[in-house]
Design goal:
Layout lengths: L5 H10 L21 H12 L3 E3 L6 E3 L5 E4 L4 E3 L3 H17 L13 E6 L6 E7 L2 E2 L1
Antiparallel strand pairs: 1-4, 2-3, 5-6, 6-7
């Protein structure tokens, strides 16, 4: 955070559609910001999708009993970071699984990227990760 600058880190977070208020201090590089699960999974989806962000939605399609489409949501996507940046971040997050604190997740025979963490008061542990088709 010292080398990158707090303002640039917050600017990058905003590119990932993180809307929560982020404190302007060095601890944000450790993940001290409080985010919603939707914000976090949406941000990580950008890394899994080669820098492309898909706006999350809850309802894909509504049909009546005659299979007439009453409503259909079209995915909205846009490139928010370069694919090369998403690749580098994914590679770093794969090391968390193969060499770091996420080794316990490495039970599948496929590439997994992810991050472990704890809450600021150390009462909860969490994991967020992805394979090409799923973010959890």
């Amino acid at each position: 955070a010292i080398d990158l600058g707090v303002k640039d880190i917050i600017k990058f977070a905003k590119k990932l559609n993180i809307q929560s208020k982020i404190q302007k201090d060095l601890s944000i590089s450790l993940g001290s910001a409080s985010l919603t699960l939707l914000e976090l999974t949406n941000a990580y989806s950008v890394f899994a999708n080669n820098g492309i962000q898909a706006v999350p939605y809850m309802i894909q399609k509504v049909e009546d009993r005659n299979n007439e489409v009453l409503y259909e949501n079209e995915p909205q996507t846009k490139q928010v970071i370069p694919a090369s940046t998403a690749y580098i971040i994914t590679t770093i997050l794969q090391d968390v699984i193969t060499k770091g604190t996420g080794r316990g997740v490495n039970v599948f025979n496929r590439p997994i990227a992810g991050k472990t963490g704890t809450t600021n008061d150390n009462t909860d542990a969490w994991f967020i990760g992805y394979v090409p088709e799923i973010i959890a």
